[in-house]
Amino acid sequence: MNKNYIVLIVILSISFLGCIESKEQLQTSENNDVNLLFIYSPECIHCVRTIPAVDSFREKHNEVNVICIKYNDLTEEQRTISDNTQYVPTMVFYNNNISKKLIKSGEMSLIDLEGMYDSFKL
User: Residue 114: is its pLDDT beyond 90?
Assistant: First the structure.
């Protein structure tokens, strides 16, 4: 097996570890006014390229509850929040009562996420 291939697998595995939905994250969503729902597929190269931006955003903005979830694992509530998106990656910023939300699909950088968050806060 090619050494570069092994290194790539290790890097991708580490990246996905930072972006795994947990019960703790879901419980903290009630404590934060703003949520970011990141919908992805592990097979999608655009999703894989977006994960480092999501992880950096999470580290920089601890006031935002970041929920990462595979497309096939979406709950009915998450499907509703995302307007039944059929695209990955998809980002959804929303407040806890879901009276305000902003949805965008496609590969994103940290700068893109920052801009989207700034637009959501207006």
Answer: yes
